[in-house]
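Checklist before submission:
- one chain only
- standard amino acids only
- sequence pasted in full

Submission:
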Amino acid sequence: MMSSQNITLGLSVHRPEMIPLIADRMRCHDAIFLEEPPADGFEPMLAGALAVDDYLRPLDVEYPAFSRNMCYLLRELHAEGKMIFQVEPFLDILSGIHEFFADGHRPGELDKNSVQYPVYLVERNATKALLDYYQTAMTGSFEATIGAVKQFARMDAARFRLRDSLRAQEITSKVGKYHSSYVEAGVIHYSLWRLLRKQMVQPEQLQLIYLADDALKTTADKCHLYGPGDQLTLLYVFHPNLAQTRREALLAARSIIYSKISEKEEVTDELARFPHLRDELACIQISGRLSTADCRQLFPLVRSATSADARLIVAEYLAR
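Returned file contents:
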């Protein structure tokens, strides 16, 4: 069990515009626990002995601009005396599994009593469901695509449950050494908050913050940053045995359209205006206006369209 500590769980999106908000929060804590597995060269990079680009080059980072800017921030925090740790055991274990297979081993050789085995299973199932969704979205019917979305969301939720559980256990074993700790996580990892609270002697010492809240105050509309796909995944995270409901089908249908109209590329200009947050907020609001019947009509129109064209198609449809 954790001793009484001041711990902040900061949920955020991994976009360049969030770096200043993340920096403000991290500077208020003695220790920082990053949402990433241990990587070669991390300590030399923090110390300035390894160039940031050289450190990032062998890593498979999803958002290069965000990762690069974060590295420069972490260097500053390291110089200020902050203790910084990479803590993402699921991804670390998964990397080891990939190396195991690269050495010529097969899945059947994994020890079923090891932690590697459940990690392998949930990753395999989620990856298969994602590939099935991509194939179905390109060639299948609207109804089949909804089914594929729901199947992937269920498998992804199972992956997140294990991932957050493993991370909570490791964080629990480390934070007791520090008066104050900051735990970094993406907004989809809401369940991490519940898991950490269960392991704290004084749960009230754990503070949950959404770093996008301050940014959203700059917009005229009030909203959250959970797209329909994230909402569906979280529904399955907390209710894995949920029976078929209309809500599931609606969220799945909206997620199909949302994924077509949302901006995929990183934006690095005018970050003070929060371009990614504004785009995500706009897409959430647009998709939130659609019924399942609306999505069914839009599906063949946006299926092969670019994000920009898909947004125009949806805007024209809603303007009727």
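Reviewer check: The chain has a mean pLDDT of 93.
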